[in-house]
Design brief:
Oligomer: single chain
Radius of gyration: 19 Å
CATH class of the largest domain: Alpha Beta
Shape: globular
């Protein structure tokens, strides 16, 4: 269900709460992980700072370049906190290894500010995503426009974002068969007759484009032809290579942003790009969470990110 109030109403409420006078600052040292995981953890930290009525400051201890890709206006300079109480918050200690209910509430939070009391958790996460990764830097905007021009983005009426995660993900869960993704695309095509449709594909698998095109006759499918695809454990690959980390940061940020610019996003429920890109798409469509289509890696059926944290699936799907 879309929101009666504009998404910007809630975003501005978040920014106002973030910038309010406070006697304390939540300081978040972000450990190295995947680009999407780092970005998602910033959302978690921001929400906790709001819940504690604190300013939010962080330092990303990783060769990935997140702040150079997104303009993150909710970050307070740590110098602001010189005369404040510092709350040292650590994601692994205070969220990931916390008791299940705390972990769940941190990762899939309810809105802690009064102005967002009417939002579902999914909608609130979309506002958090907008605050962290919803404003591309000038550099990233150039990359986005380059790709949109190359694939003739504006020539289409409907954009379906498809994220197919491969690489090392099968150490956590099975790969989702291509047919499961395509089944969801077919449903959207049937619901939107007569529209010129582009499927924008984001994937680390070099074979993914061929697999999708071969099974979607008559539908245009495109990705960034210039992108290097390694189909591996990306965070480990870039850990000691800052130049490659810069390149992979640009790739990741570009794909998250392009997924967010789509009308619908389809992908694995466990995949960070599916989560983040889908949340941006929800924000960009009046907080309509039905546009965020996450598939369970074990069944291939519609699932949800928050089911991983113990939320009952029947309470998550519209």
């Amino acid at each position: 269900m879309a929101s009666e109030k504009s998404p910007d109403y809630y975003l501005q409420a978040l920014i106002k709460a973030n910038q309010s006078d406070s006697k304390q600052t939540l300081f978040h040292r972000v450990e190295h992980g995947g680009f999407g995981a780092i970005t998602s953890r910033l959302m978690t930290g921001l929400n906790i700072s709001l819940a504690l009525d604190s300013n939010y400051s962080f330092l990303i201890d990783s060769p990935y370049v997140v702040e150079g890709m997104f303009d993150i206006g909710v970050k307070q300079p740590i110098e602001v906190a010189q005369h404040q109480e510092i709350i040292e918050w650590n994601f692994l200690r205070d969220t990931w290894n916390a008791p299940p209910q705390i972990k769940a509430d941190h990762q899939y939070p309810a809105c802690p500010i009064e102005a967002g009391a009417d939002l579902t958790r999914h909608q609130w996460c979309a506002v958090l995503a907008k605050a962290i990764c919803g404003t591309p830097s000038a550099f990233l905007n150039t990359e986005i426009e380059r790709l949109k021009n190359a694939i003739h983005w504006d020539a289409y009426d409907l954009h379906i974002g498809l994220h197919i995660r491969r690489g090392d993900k099968n150490t956590e869960c099975p790969y989702i068969p291509t047919e499961a993704y395509l089944s969801q695309i077919q449903k959207l095509l049937q619901a939107n007759p007569g529209k010129k449709v582009l499927v924008f594909l984001s994937s680390d698998d070099p074979e993914a484009l061929g697999h999708v095109r071969a099974r979607l006759n008559g539908v245009d499918v495109a990705w960034d032809e210039t992108e290097a695809r390694y189909n591996n454990f990306n965070a480990g690959m870039v850990a000691s290579n800052p130049a490659l980390a810069q390149q992979e940061s640009a790739t990741a940020a570009k794909n998250i942003s392009l997924l967010g610019d789509c009308d619908y996003v389809i992908g694995m429920s466990h995949a960070q790009f599916t989560w983040l890109g889908g949340l941006l798409a929800v924000f960009n469509h009046r907080l309509d969470a039905s546009r965020h289509i996450m598939l369970d890696p074990h069944t291939g059926q519609r699932g949800h990110w928050a089911a991983f944290y113990g939320f009952p699936l029947q309470t998550l799907l519209l």
